[in-house]
Amino acid sequence: MKNIEKFFNEKLMQLRDKMKTDLGTELKVAFYDLKTGQAYDISGNEIGWAASMIKVPVLVATFREIDRGMSLNEKLDIDHRFTLDPTSEVSARPQGSTITIDELLNYMILASCNESTNMLGDRIGIERINATMDELGCPKTKISHLLHVGASLVYEGIDGTSSNTTTAIEMTKLMAKIYNNQTASETSSEQMRAILENRPEIEYRRPNVNGFLKTFLPRGTIVGCKAGLLEEDVMETGVINSDYALTIMINKIPSGLITKSIPLIGRISMRIFEEYYKK
Fold it and tell me: What is the pLDDT of residue 278?
């Protein structure tokens, strides 16, 4: 653990400062050991746009409703008011056809389908999702609006931009709680882990959009994760081998540098993996 602490306090801090000075880019990283509770971070409490990582709070809030009696087999009518990308898995289906909560959850996490997210967010309610984050100790993780054109602003936001937000520490905490059965029942927690880890493996028309953290990790490493990608932001939160949770957020990336930022997440993850399992 001393090596991980040194890596955060020296290498990552230097990298964060250089990225901020040279590019105006923000690097935020948070680590939490599920076995010992040891935690490290750089800029872990700083708020940033959450991109599709905000789908993890929707996942958690939905399974808490399932624990209260909602069924995974409940069918919702597809409503293309919620469409953002017409080529996504759900948006390509006919208006008025039905889809189960279970299908929507898998599409939301594994295909990062925005219409699935919007349908679940509408079914559960943004206010309830945000209240759930408060209850779980993640007050900076907030949904201000659904993810479609013309979406109504439900929450003013906490960063002055009316955006969906989170922090590296809060997202790491949330993932750790999922793996420690602290967000929902044991059964629901296991179902969430299965979705995040894509087991059994499901293939969609689009390849799995997650996996930045495991890009350079050894074959066979088990990673439950959710990535996020916007024009100026790239990030991923995950749990590696059920041993530790890690969130890496890179916000305010200059135009044209997104493709270089994605491998950086993988390299940082690989270095932490090496230090964690070093004998």
Answer: 86
How far separated are the first and last CA of the chain, in Å rounded?
Answer: 11
SS (H, E, C) the chain: CHHHHHHHHHHHHHHHHHHHHHHCCEEEEEEEECCCCCEEEECCCCCEECHHHHHHHHHHHHHHHHHCCCCCCCEEECCHHHCCCCCCCCCCCCCCCEEEHHHHHHHHHHCCCHHHHHHHHHHHCHHHHHHHHHHCCCCCCECCCCCCCCCCCCCCCCCCCCCCEECHHHHHHHHHHHHCCCCCCHHHHHHHHHHHHCCCCCCCCCCCCCCCCCCCCCCCCCEEEEEEECCCCEEEEEEECCCEEEEEEEECCCCCCHHHHHHHHHHHHHHHHHHHCCC
Distance of CA 71 to the CA centre of its chain: 23
Q: What is the mean pLDDT of each run of 10 residues along the chain (279 residues)?
A: 88 96 96 97 95 96 98 92 74 89 94 90 93 97 78 68 88 98 98 92 68 96 96 96 98 91 96 91
pTM of the model: 0.94
- Cα–Cα nearest to 49, from 152, 131, 171: 171
- pLDDT of amino acid 149: 64
